[in-house]
C-alpha cells in the first residue's frame, strides 16, 4: 500500500517537473528560434513560456497578452500601455484629467521658474515626447491619436502663466522622417533622437552646440520586449541605433554625490560615456575645456542618458539628478549650494503631469 502511494506521488512529481520544460520546448519549437536556452535551468522558467506565448500572440494576431503593460503597433513597433503614466489613453485623448491638475502643474512650473530666477539661474522646461506622439502611424489598430492632448493643454497653460515649455514633439517627428528616432521595441529615443533634442535645447538656451557625427549601429531588443518577456526571441542586432562621435573629444570626469550625506566620491574619467540618473544619487560631470564655462543643474529622467555626452562636452560642470528623487527642500539646497547658471527640467511626456517639484 505504502509502495503504491509512493509510486503515484513519484509519477505526479515527474509530470510536474517535466511539464514546464515540455511546454517551453513545444512553444519555442512552434514559433521558431533556438530551442535550448543558454542556461538549461531556464527550461523550468514560467517567464520563458510567457515570452513565447506573447511572441506568438504578437506575430500571429497583432495582439498583446498584457495590453495594459505593452501594446502591439504596426511595422514591428511596441508601445507602452496604460500601466505606465496612462500613456496610451493620453495619446487617444480618453484619459480622465483630474480637475485642476493642469492648472496646478502650470503653476508648479511657474514657481520653479521664479525660484531659479531668484537664484540667478536661467530656467528651461522641456518635454521629451512619448514614442506614441512621434510615430502615430505605427500605433496599434483602433488607436487614433487625439487632435489635442493633455500635453497641449499643459504647454498652453504654462505659457499663459509665463513659463514657455520647449515641446520636442515637432523636432522628433522631423527626425523620424529621415532616421530612426525611437527604438521599435523600447520606450526611448535613439541617439539620433537624443542628439536632435540636445540641439533644440542648446538653441533654446542660446548656447553653442558641440559638433558631432552619428554612426549607425545595431542594438538588441529593448525594454518593451523585456516587459513581455520576449527579448530572447529577437535577433541580437534587431534595433537600429547610432553612436555619437564627438568631433573634438573632451576630457570629462564624473563623480557620485550621496543625496543623504552630500559626500562626493572620486571624479573618474568617463571618456565621452553616458551619465545616468536612474539611481538615487546626484552626479556631477566636469569638463574643464568645454566651450561654455557655465554650470548646469540637470533635472531629468532616463531620456537624458543618451544625450548626456553632448551636454557634458558643452558645459564646464553639470549636476545630474532625477527630478522624482528630490523634493523642494533638496532643490532649494542645490540652488543655494551649487549656484548653477542654468536649470534644465526635462520630463518624459507621460510623466509631465506627475511633477511634484514647485507644488
Structure in words:
With 359 residues, the protein is an alpha/beta fold. The protein has two domains: 73 residues, no CATH class; 236 residues, no CATH class. The protein contains eleven helices and twelve strands. A hairpin with a 5-residue loop joins β1 and β2. The radius of gyration is 24 Å and the shape is globular.
Task: Give a short overview.
Helix content is 36%, strand content 19%. With 359 residues, the chain is of the alpha/beta class. The strands form 3 sheets. Strands 4-3-12-10-11-9-7-8 form an 8-stranded mixed β-sheet, with helices on both faces.
Characteristic key phrases:
359 residues, alpha/beta, 2 domains, eight-stranded mixed beta sheet, two-stranded antiparallel sheet, 11 helices, 12 strands, 36% helix, 19% strand, globular
- Most strands sheet: 8 strands, mixed
- As residue ranges, the low-confidence spans are none
Q: What sequence of helices (H) and strands (E) makes up the elements?
A: HHEEHHEHHEHHEHEEEEEHEHE
How does the helix and strand content classify structurally? alpha/beta
**How many domains, in number, for the residues?**
2
Amino acid at each position: 500500500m505504502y509502495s503504491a502511494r509512493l509510486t503515484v506521488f513519484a509519477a505526479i512529481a515527474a509530470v510536474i517537473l517535466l511539464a514546464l520544460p515540455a511546454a517551453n520546448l513545444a512553444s519555442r519549437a512552434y514559433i521558431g528560434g533556438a530551442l535550448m536556452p543558454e542556461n538549461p535551468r531556464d527550461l523550468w522558467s514560467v517567464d520563458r513560456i510567457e515570452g513565447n506565448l506573447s511572441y506568438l500572440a504578437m506575430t500571429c494576431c497583432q495582439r498583446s497578452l498584457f495590453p495594459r503593460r505593452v501594446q502591439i503597433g504596426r511595422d514591428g513597433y511596441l508601445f507602452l500601455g496604460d500601466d505606465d503614466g496612462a500613456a496610451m489613453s493620453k495619446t487617444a485623448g480618453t484619459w480622465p484629467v483630474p480637475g485642476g491638475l493642469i492648472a496646478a502643474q502650470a503653476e508648479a512650473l511657474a514657481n520653479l521658474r521664479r525660484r531659479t530666477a531668484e537664484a540667478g539661474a536661467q530656467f528651461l522646461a522641456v518635454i521629451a515626447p512619448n514614442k506614441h506622439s512621434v510615430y502615430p502611424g505605427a500605433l496599434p489598430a483602433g488607436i487614433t491619436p487625439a487632435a489635442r492632448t493633455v500635453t497641449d493643454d499643459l504647454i498652453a497653460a504654462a505659457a499663459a502663466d509665463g513659463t514657455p515649455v520647449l515641446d520636442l514633439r515637432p523636432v522628433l517627428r522631423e527626425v523620424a522622417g529621415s532616421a530612426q528616432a525611437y527604438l521599435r521595441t523600447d520606450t526611448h529615443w535613439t541617439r539620433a533622437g537624443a542628439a536632435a533634442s540636445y540641439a533644440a535645447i542648446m538653441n533654446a538656451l542660446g548656447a553653442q552646440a558641440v559638433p558631432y557625427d552619428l554612426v549607425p549601429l545595431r542594438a538588441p531588443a529593448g525594454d518593451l520586449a523585456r516587459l513581455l518577456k520576449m527579448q530572447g526571441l529577437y535577433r541580437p542586432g534587431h534595433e537600429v541605433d547610432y553612436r555619437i562621435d564627438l568631433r573634438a573629444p573632451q576630457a570629462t570626469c564624473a563623480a557620485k554625490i550621496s543625496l543623504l550625506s552630500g559626500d562626493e566620491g572620486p571624479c573618474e574619467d568617463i571618456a565621452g560615456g553616458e551619465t545616468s540618473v536612474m539611481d538615487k544619487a546626484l552626479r556631477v560631470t566636469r569638463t574643464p575645456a568645454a566651450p561654455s564655462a557655465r554650470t548646469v543643474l540637470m533635472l531629468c529622467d532616463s531620456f537624458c542618458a543618451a544625450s548626456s555626452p553632448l551636454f557634458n562636452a558643452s558645459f564646464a560642470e553639470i549636476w545630474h539628478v532625477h527630478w522624482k528623487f528630490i523634493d523642494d527642500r533638496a532643490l532649494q539646497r542645490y540652488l543655494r549650494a551649487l549656484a548653477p547658471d542654468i536649470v534644465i527640467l526635462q520630463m518624459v511626456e507621460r510623466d509631465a503631469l506627475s511633477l511634484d517639484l514647485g507644488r
